[in-house]
Amino acid sequence: MGMSLQDFDQCTPLEFEKIFEMWHESQEMTFRNGWEQIRQLAVRILMPYTDKELEPRDVMEFTWDKDADKKPESRKKSRKERETDRRHYEEVKKERGLS
Prior knowledge:
Strand content: under 5%
Radius of gyration: 21 Å
Helix content: 55-70%
Shape: elongated
Structural class: mainly alpha
Largest sheet: none
Order of helices and strands: HHHHH
Number of helices: 5
């Protein structure tokens, strides 16, 4: 993630969660971008050999295509889940000598 131990030590669990989510989203977008480019290239290569208008999903379908069709589900963590996360966060800090 590129985060120093000092930065980690200064983060609250909620801050770290948001940083991790953004980092993970960035990594996933980089991964998807490469596959989307391949899919577009495949469509362009195949177009001269078909009579119908090709869509990218006609050539390759990815798991994130199905996810895009679904309505996003947002759920807040319960108080118990947040408390469990906080305890785990504190344990990790102690293990690493950061508290």
